[in-house]
Amino acid sequence: MIKNYTSTVPVQRSLAHIEERLVKHGARSTVKTYDDKGNIEAFCFVLIINDKEVPFKLPARVANVEKVLIKQVVRKKAETLLRVHDQAERTAWKLVSDWVDIQLSLVELGQVEIMEVLLSYVYDPKNKCTLFERYKENWYKLISDSTSR
């Protein structure tokens, strides 16, 4: 069962909660990025880590959530599909909000460091990708280089 697949929490409320939690943990700036249709695709923020500004990008891949939800729809009418899209947005952002809550709770309890949980989301504005996206692109080379020693 997918968590939050019936969430009624508006996207803006999930985003406000994410922002509030991150600001409490030192976020210096926040910004939302939008796709060409005006949908929010990522929540970006900057934290000071070891006296340096480090940008992060937390995506919500709404289209992926929508694909899963559409598979569950019996009658695929236009109005139903529009409701599925709206539900996918709410579900995706509520999941990100819950994830942020859980990760920052672990930080507050001293179980992890903030960079431990956010490392894959470090954003490189010059190359327009996260650390994970860069790693994914080159993973085979990185793994074969490290295992051949």
Broad shape: globular
Class from secondary-structure proportions: alpha+beta
Can you count the beta strands?
5
The assembly state of the depicted protein chains is single chain
**Uncertain stretches of 5 or more adjacent residues:** none
* Share of β-strand residues: 15-25%
Number of helices: 5
- Give Rg in angstroms: 17 Å
Strand order, main sheet: write it out: 1-2-3
Q: Can you write the helix and strand succession as a string?
A: HEEEHHHEEH
Mean pLDDT, all residues: 91
What's the N-to-C terminus distance? Answer: 43 Å
Main sheet makeup: 3 strands, antiparallel
Q: Can you tell me the number of structural domains?
A: 1
Q: Could you characterize the architecture of this molecule?
A:
With 149 residues, the protein is an alpha+beta fold. It has one domain. It has five helices and five strands. The strands form two sheets. The protein has a three-stranded antiparallel beta sheet, with helices on one face. Strands 4-5 form a two-stranded antiparallel ribbon. Strand 2 and strand 3 form a beta hairpin. The chain starts with 10 loop residues before the first helix and ends with a helix. The model has no long low-confidence stretch (mean pLDDT 91).
